[in-house]
Amino acid sequence: MALRTAILRHLRVPVQSLTATGFNQSQIGFLGSIRSLSSHDDHLSKEAVVDRVLDVVKSFPKVDPAKVTPDVHFQKDLGLDSLDTVEIVMAIEEEFKLEIPDKEADKIDSCPLAIEYVYNHPMSS
Q1: Which of 55, 94, 108, 120 has the most CB atoms around its CB within 10 Å?
Q2: Three-state SS at 105
């Protein structure tokens, strides 16, 4: 699966060649609206990552959503224990379709660290 993803990230579709071969817009139909792809299309913007991480944390049952900010620490600011932190990290993995290695997951104890990790590790296909 990883090899497939790596190959597809670098695959380019020459959209302009469709019109260069004699097809006009009406013959192409919906293909005319395809945009060019880049290797970063599957990478979320920092703002999207922040919003989704905060949504995951806010939806955790033991968390007061009003206390959740991009700078919040799970234990110090939200009063969560280590098991709660593990559950939040697992929810983040599920939200972003990621597998965070245990060594890395153990380090994630705040929104800034979760946001940084997710932003630097694009979603799987």
Answers
A1: 108
A2: helix
Per domain, the residue ranges of the chain are: 49-120
H or E element: which one contains 104? helix 102-105
Q: Which residues are known catalytic residues?
A: 81
For residue 113, which of 100, 99, 97 has the smallest C-alpha distance? Answer: 100
Query: Residues 38-75: pLDDT tens digits?
Result: 334 457 899 999 999 999 999 999 999 999 999 999 99
Q: Per-residue b/e over 54-73, b at no fewer than 16 CB within 10 Å?
A: bebbeebeebeeeebeeebe
Has this prediction a pTM greater than 0.85? no
Architecture in CATH of 49-120: Orthogonal Bundle (1.10)
- Amino acid sitting at position 74: F
Q: Whole-angstrom Cα distance, residue 125 to residue 101?
A: 18
